[in-house]
Design a protein that fits this description.
Blueprint lengths: L1 E2 L3 H7 L2 E5 L3 E2 L2 H11 L4 H4 L1 H7 L9 H6 L1 H8 E2 L7 E10 L9 E14 L2 E12 L5 E11 L1
Parallel strand pairs: 1-4
Antiparallel strand pairs: 2-6, 3-6, 5-8, 6-7, 7-8
Amino acid sequence: MREITTLEQLEALAGQQVAVSQWIAITQQQVDRFADATGDHQWIHVDVERARRELPTGGTVAHGFLTLALLPQILAGTIDLGAQVKMLLNYGLNRVRFPAPLPVGSRVRGIVVLQSVQTIAGGAQLVWEITLEREGGDKPVCVAEFLVRRY
């Protein structure tokens, strides 16, 4: 895990790739729990037998928003913003895209780029571009700009 303790260190990293996460396995249990939490029970996500018969992936696929929900986990697992940080706020998302499906049973990892650092009252706003890639895939499964406020 990369430790960044000062605002100056953050500013020096702007525009650079700063981390690559560990691989995360996507299971049907995760997909089912996400469907229950969101009420999104589309068959492509939860009907294993039908998906096996009808989808080119040969099985169910994760919700796009499930992949998006992995972003805080990816960021927290790759970057340590130092003990002096009082608070981190997830401030929003920009330009979220889902270029490819994520079949259940796949593994994903995040590639983290610090796009920008902007000084704000009491801290900084960071824009991280996180690309989730599927192991063996030719396109990313999610690309998003993740805004975080650091105080």
